[in-house]
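Researcher: Please predict.
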Amino acid sequence: MIFLQSTIVEKLTRSRGIDIDYVLQLKDLLVANNLTQIEEDYISCPLGWGSRTGELHGQNCVLVYQAMQPIIGSDMGLSKVEFDKQVVKLVNSYKEYKTWHKAPYVYGRKPL
């Protein structure tokens, strides 16, 4: 789907003062604050398939996309109805193609 291209998502988030790349700097933030035993990894999250959690994650994606519609729908030249149809089509493709994403996490311990 067109609106998931990184340039559009980047434009949207940056216009709202949100840095979506900040998550990639979390380990550096923990190091800078003197945490120890820092662990950094990710979990694989299915989108709309695989389990109840995956289904809920897919539903969350629908809500996020719908919330983006007033901001980027006009840029895409889509009415709300057309946009919503594309969202449904996209989320259905998640199930078909077993789409997932990486959810990074970082944690550490405060020194004693």
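Model: The beta strands are 36-46, 100-109.
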